[in-house]
C-alpha cells in the first residue's frame, strides 16, 4: 500500500528573492506584450500558484504527435498528446517553461467564459513562454482565447506538488554541485532531473570514494541546517561579456555558464548565500531550510568511446520523504516475510541465500546422478540395437529452472560411456508439468557426428518450428506451445529421416 507523504511548503517567497541588478531592465507592463522568460512570475515568485493575466496570442499548434517524439531517458517532461492543441502566449505566467534541465510545469488556464483548460506543457520560443492547451476542437476553441482578454493561469495541487519536487531537486543539484567543486574540485558535467520518485543524478568526471561522498553529504547538510538563503539576480545579457566555460579533452563542457544556444536576452543568476553563483533559468526554493540532502553512497561508472565518467545519485525534499517511507515499508514487509525484526533482515537474507545455494548444490548433485542412470539406460538400448545409426528420443517432464542444463548433463554422461566406433544421434527434450500455448519446451540434439546433428536440427526447425542452433555435435532449441504426442511423433520422424 502506498504511503501518504505530506510536504510542508514555505508560505510566501521573500520580497528580496528576485533582484533586478541592471539599472535599465524593467518588467514589461504593456499587457499586449509577453514578459520574456527570465522575468516570468514563476521565476520571480516560485511559490506563486495563481495569476490573473492577459492573452497576447493564440494559434493552433503544429506540435509533433507523441508517436514521433524520440524516446529519451528523461521522463519528467510532459509529452505531447495526440489531441488538438492550442499554443497560447500570455502576458505573464506561473507555469514554468522547461529549461535549465528542469521539465515544464503542467497547469490550467481559466478563460472569461468560466471554462478551465488543461495546459500539458510550456516551452520557450524565442524568449517567450508558449502554453500548450488541450482543445476538443481547435478551430472553434481558438475563439475562446481572444488577445486582450483576461484569464487566470494556475497550478493545481498536483501541478504545484510536481513543481515543488522539481524545485527541491533542482536547488539540491546546485547545492551538491557547488559543494563538490568547492571541496573536491570535481566539476559537474551534466545532471538529470528524473521522474519522481527515482533519485536524480549528477554526472562527474570521475568516481568518488565512500569517504568523499560522506564528506560532501555532511557539508551540504550543514548548509541546509544553517538555512542558507537563496535569491536570484537578473540582468540584461548585454551588460557584460559571459565567462568562457572550460572544455575537457573529451569535448565536454565543465563549470558554470550560459548555454550557447540561449537567446532569451535575460541572464538569471541563482545565488546560494556564501556558497554558489550559477546562471540558471529554472525555478528554485528561496532557502535551503528543510531541504536535507541524501546521497546514494556509491557512484555508477560510465564508459564512452573516449572518456570515462560517473553518476552520483541523490534525493532531497518530498522525494527523499517518499524514498524513506517506501524503503521503510519494504523493509517492514521483508521482515514480516522472514519472521524477524527489521534490524535482523540483512542477516536473515544471508541465511536464506546460503540455504538456497546449498539446496541448489544438492539438486545439481542429484541431477548428475540421475543423468548417469538415464545415460546408462540409453547405452543398454544402444548395445542391443542392430541399426547402422542408433537414434533415440528421450522426453522428460521437468519443472526445474534450468532444464537444458539437466539435458546437457545426460548428454555428457552418455558421451562418457558411448562406444567411440558406434554412430548415433539422440534428441533429449523437456517440458514443464503445467503447459499453455506460450510454454517453452527445450530440446538438445547430441550425436557422434556433426552432420547428423545439423540435419536433425534443420528438420526440427522446419517441421516443428523449433528456434535454435548449435555447433559441432550439439544443437539446442526451444519449442513454444503444449508438448503432446504429436510433437513426440514429429521428433521420431526427424530421427528416421536422418538415418541412412
TrEMBL record:
InterPro entries associated with the record: Alanyl-tRNA_Editing_Enzymes, Thr/Ala-tRNA-synth_IIc_edit, Transl_B-barrel_sf
Glycosyltransferase listed as a keyword: no
Keywords for the protein's UniProt record, in alphabetical order: Metal-binding, Zinc
Key word Zinc present: yes
GO molecular function, one term: nucleotide binding
Name of the protein in question: Threonyl/alanyl tRNA synthetase SAD domain-containing protein
Origin organism lineage: Eukaryota, Fungi, Dikarya, Basidiomycota, Agaricomycotina
